[in-house]
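ok, trying the design again with the full structure, not the truncated one.
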């Protein structure tokens, strides 16, 4: 049997939009009719888990029919010996993945914002890796190093080096290549010099480390508001959640713009069979 396709959201920087973009992909895949499982590797914060719990609670309280993934959490091993902890983490991930990937079309994994072993192991098994970065030079530093003037590309950053290592390890074990996509998140609607510089730098990085750059996602209040109800902009633009939008929701036009940018993002991921089903979202 063909196993499910694994999409990992990772960046060692916290607050870059991993959980928010993961939950939007999950909801998009569900509305597109796929069988979806999700794995939260951020055992401390469990933001994805909380998001999905809120989603289930909204469905029950408001009587709306919201699709939910099969969701599980893995907490990192607390074994005393680092070696033993690594072994336990690797085994826990392999066990969950073999079970979930056998019964679902996609497994979406949300990583913690730190360099944990569990997170590295997930990067090694990713068919597609999505790395959201906030549109700031400080956040860019994990992915690419610039000189003091911010002009010259010096080297791939610590996180990019880790990704390249995991991809090599995967290839060395006979695995297929990994598609790595960097996503510019929380972009300002007003183009700035800073933003242009980040765009140019990422284009150069993509040629060096072999990643692709997706169309970005804007900074919008709506993305922050939806957590408590466990919803995504894709839920809000369709029945049955349509009549139950938050009172403070942005205007129709702005919601439609958010929905379009999420659809563009999903399209840019080039996931198997997803692009031709985007019309359903
Ligand atoms: N495009 C966006 N516009 C506005 N706020 C956003 C956007 N993406 C994420 N956020 C907010 O930024 C914060 C960090 O996002 P989160 O997805 O939790 O990041 P991570 O999982 O990488 O730590 C959250 O408060 C979230 O609501
Ligand atoms: Mg998170």
């Amino acid at each position: 049997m063909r196993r499910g396709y694994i999409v990992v959201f990772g960046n060692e920087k916290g607050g870059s939009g991993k959980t928010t973009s993961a939950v939007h992909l999950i909801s998009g895949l569900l509305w597109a009719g796929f069988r979806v499982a999700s794995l939260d590797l951020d055992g401390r914060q469990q933001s994805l888990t909380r998001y999905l719990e809120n989603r289930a609670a909204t469905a029950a309280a408001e009587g709306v029919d919201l699709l939910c993934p099969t969701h599980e959490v893995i907490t990192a091993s607390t074994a005393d010996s680092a070696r033993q902890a690594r072994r336990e983490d690797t085994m826990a991930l392999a066990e969950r993945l073999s079970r979930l990937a056998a019964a679902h079309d996609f497994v979406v994994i949300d990583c913690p914002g730190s360099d944990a072993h569990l997170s590295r192991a997930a990067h090694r098994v990713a068919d597609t890796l999505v790395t959201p970065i906030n549109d700031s030079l400080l956040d860019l530093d994990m992915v690419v190093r610039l000189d003091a003037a911010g002009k010259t590309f010096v080297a791939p950053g610590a996180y990019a080096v880790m990704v390249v290592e995991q991809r090599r390890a995967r290839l060395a074990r006979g695995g297929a290549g990994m598609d790595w996509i960097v996503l510019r998140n929380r972009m300002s609607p007003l183009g700035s010099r800073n933003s242009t510089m980040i765009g140019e730098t990422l284009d150069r990085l993509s040629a060096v480390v072999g990643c692709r750059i997706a169309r970005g996602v804007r900074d919008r209040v709506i993305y922050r508001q939806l957590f408590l109800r466990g919803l995504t902009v894709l839920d809000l633009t369709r029945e049955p959640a349509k009549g139950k939008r938050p009172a403070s929701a942005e205007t129709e036009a702005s919601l439609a713009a958010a929905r379009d940018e999420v659809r563009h993002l999903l399209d840019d991921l080039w996931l198997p069979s997803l692009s031709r089903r985007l019309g359903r979202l």
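Keeping the full-length input from now on. The first strand starts at residue 5 and ends at 9.
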